[in-house]
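Slide 14.
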Amino acid sequence: MLFPSSLVGEEPAPAKAGVPEGRKRSTSEASALALGPGIRRDDDIGGSRMSTTKASYPPSWYAASATPLPAQPPLQGSIDADICILGAGYTGLSAALELAEAGYQVVVLEAERIGWGASGRNGGQAIAGFSCGEAKLEALVGFDDARKLFDLSREGLQWLRERIRKHAIDCHWRDGHASVPIKPRQQRESLAAVEDFNTRYDYPVEWWDRERLREQLASDRYLGAMYDPQSGHLHPLEYALGLARAAMQAGVRIFEHSRVTQLVRGARPTLKTAQGEAHCDFAILAGNALLHGIVPELESRIMPVGTYIAATTPLGEARAAALIRNDMAVADTNWALDYFRRSRDHRLLFGGRASYSTLPPPDLRGAMTQRMRRVFPQLADVEIEYVWGGMIDISLNRAPHFGRLTPNVYFAQGFSGHGVIATGLAGKLMAEAIRGQSERLDLFAKIQHRPFPGGRVLRTPLLVAAMAWYKLRDALW
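Slide 15: predicted structure.
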């Protein structure tokens, strides 16, 4: 669900039951982090000192709990490769792994650390389909192509599972996802979606009434659930690091702290950094919301939206299991949604809030605590230990935006908060196209994408106004 990029991160709050106290951040410091990446190497996460490797990631439960990779060197000087990829997130790493396994020489340039952005900080919910929904895709490209696109997302889910198995990536995968309506209107829409998935898309999902949902989810907030047994959830940073390990074992060279400052198009594209340049036969742009100043014609078709996650203190196995008995992931159907799941160490990971102005909400920790207790009032005595969040990239129609800038420069963006599966799919399809099989990638080119209205000055205020309407609709009916 959440797919953040340039993020604000808070250290853990003082916690009860013997949890060590972390340093509180001032409001001005938190705002600065929202605008600029990274944390200092002496920052304290969860009351224990991080290693230098972990310290270069923004603070989150993911960064504190992941098994780190050794730091990779920055690019220095001039190098040549068959393929050069901007971005060491899911999209770039998936493409790199596919191409390296096919025998190509692949270089990946990462501005910060592997999985530093969205891929290492998202909500971890891997859900079939795309953010815009099937009805929107049908309106954009017709049912036949919408069905093909949905089937590709199912393949992306299967591909994700296969990569986890093949490369023994310990990313805490769990089966099951529930989409839960709050209002009668949303319940009617969910029932229609269950019928649609089963009859028109041949995708088996179940409708759970309120009583059946209550057997698995200890909350009275929802009217039922559309349960998808094939989707699931994982530890995002562990998955990104696992992909990187597999890619490097296949021969991929990854350069960290190598921010691309210029794309030179031509017969052999060049990606330039402050200290070097990479020349290649094909380039892949996988920077998404972090693709600043490189390709203006792509940037105009996405917008950053802030969204946030909190992790509680450990609840203990029995108390955590009582909240979500089958360990599924859950998301409501509001426009600005809440979503949550259990962690392996028996915390509740709870995502929500959205900022369309790019500014972090005031009292983020307090707001997330209030939202969590609205769903689970039985957690009134539980504290939030970690809070993080940031910018996802959304397209105007919420549909994914994959394609080519030139015959030898590929890109993927516009995952719109629904990217755990779609990013890996994008990497695979771009790799296929480079190898000469572009039919499946070309399906996405049929989706028309327009720039956000208002230009650089007015497009954010216009988006804020539009999103206020959707929030009002969710609140009233």
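Speaker note: The chain has 15 helices and 20 strands.
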